[in-house]
Design brief:
Layout lengths: L9 E6 L5 E8 L6 E3 L3 E2 L8 H13 L4 E4 L4 H11 L7 E6 L1 E2 L6 E2 L3 H15 L2 E6 L5 H8 L2 H12 L2 E8 L2 H8 L6 E5 L2 H5 L6 H7 L11 H13 L2 E5 L21 H10 L3 E4 L6 H8 L6 H4 L2 H4 L25 H13 L6 H8 L11 H5 L6 H12 L1
Parallel strand pairs: 4-5, 5-6, 6-9, 9-10, 10-11, 11-12, 12-13
Antiparallel strand pairs: 1-2, 2-3, 7-8
Length: about 400
């Protein structure tokens, strides 16, 4: 059965320090052609940690099969600790390094002043030799967009790539409208985006970072916000791989006190949700210790029921009704159809029915979607009332 590269998993058995075995999975990061572990490591919480703690955390991640790290922190000490902890294993990992992340005025600051930008990024290059993904840092507002794409900032990123200092150009964002505008320039090859069920339900007018600071109220949540859904589909259509930050909502989604849902989610549910979004290649939880890394790796020990997020995200409102959230409750299909993937391809095709990418048609046709017998088993199991049979017909019409 054919599947798109950004959903494809490659498995490797790895021995964990505790003696257990983990099936790490790898997915292609869109058009870059590079395979990333589906769970990576966000290194932000290692800032300020002593070297030995950094060494143990990085070691646990690599021993678990993690091969992608996000290093957006501008501080010299944490960067040096990570580089030292990697040592000769630098070649075994891919690093997201952020262009424009500085600490001139505060711990984390955003700069578009080119001498400052160059100073901080060239220190990254000194420590790591090269950067796999040069991430244009924090493109959220219209001003952010203009100060990157209408200035020498983007020229600098392109020059770094031509020189081989970075291998691919990406960017980070929390705002779907701005992210889509950046993608449509044709410059970025990948995106780091905040992905979790609470953020995906916030109205597009809400600032997700403000919500992290001030709390996410259940009354502010609706069904999947259309612009965020559109972003995921656009990324899949254009093969822009996504690495997911804030998958745990800075821990708030795991907290009985702070979760906006009827009950807190688990780490496995949060990671499962992030990985179910179209084009997402890897979730990068921020871990501060080896134990936290191993806790994240518990995702691989979780069974389907323990990873299932459908009941949790359905506990807020009924706005999901009729919309596929790719939870997989419709499976298995008696005819052997991968219903979730058919729905994903259909959603991508609906973005622009007059210009459906040939790759989407090809992947769909390998799924056997036209084999639907209209038995209704899928619809009877769907918790969101998705008209699966009608979707199968529409997919056959658009993609068959």
């Amino acid at each position: 059965m054919g599947v798109p590269l950004y959903f494809m998993g490659i498995f490797a058995l790895l021995n964990l320090p505790a003696g257990g075995i983990i099936n790490m999975e790898y997915r292609q990061i869109g058009k870059t052609g590079l395979q990333a572990s589906v769970i990576g490591l966000g290194c932000e919480r290692l800032d300020g940690a002593p070297y030995e703690q950094v060494r143990e955390t990085i070691g646990a991640a690599l021993e678990s099969g993690v091969n992608i790290l996000d290093v957006f922190m501008p501080g010299t000490a944490v960067r040096e600790n990570i580089a030292k902890a990697l040592g000769g294993r630098r070649k075994n990992v891919m690093i997201q390094g952020h262009i424009g992340s500085t600490d001139v005025n505060q711990q984390y600051d955003i700069s578009r002043d080119m001498p400052t930008v160059r100073k901080y990024f060239e220190e990254l290059l000194r420590l790591f030799g090269y950067i796999d993904f040069g991430m244009m840092f924090f493109i959220d507002s219209e001003d952010d967009y203009k100060n990157v794409f209408d200035t020498d900032f983007v020229t600098y990123a392109e020059r770094l790539k031509r020189q081989g200092d970075i291998r691919h150009i990406g960017f980070s964002s929390h705002i779907p409208v701005t992210a889509m505008k950046a993608i449509n320039t044709g410059v970025p090859e990948m995106l780091m985006f905040s992905v979790n069920p609470a953020f995906d339900m916030l109205p597009v007018t809400e600032n997700v970072l403000d919500r992290l600071e001030n709390g996410i109220e259940s009354g502010s949540l609706r069904g999947i916000e259309p612009k965020r859904a559109e972003l995921y589909k656009l990324c899949a259509q254009k093969q822009i791989g996504i690495t997911a930050m804030k998958a745990l909502g800075a821990g708030k989604l795991l907290s009985p006190e702070h979760t906006p849902f009827a009950k807190p989610l688990t780490t496995a549910q949060c990671i499962s949700y992030a990985l179910s979004r179209p084009a997402v290649a890897s979730a990068l939880p921020g871990c501060r210790s080896a134990d936290e890394v191993r806790d994240a790796m518990g995702y691989f020990d979780a069974n389907d029921a323990e990873r299932d997020y459908a009941e949790a995200i359905g506990s807020v409102r009924s706005d999901f009704m009729g919309n596929c959230v790719y939870c997989g409750h419709c499976q298995p299909c008696p005819a052997g159809i991968d219903i979730v993937s058919v729905n994903k391809y259909l959603d991508i095709a609906r973005l622009d029915t007059a210009n459906i990418p040939p790759s989407i048609r090809s992947h769909y046709q390998a799924l056997g979607g036209t084999d639907c017998t209209q038995c209704g088993n899928c619809e009877s199991r769907c918790p969101f009332g998705v008209p699966v049979i009608e979707n199968m017909r529409e997919a056959a019409r658009l993609l068959g």
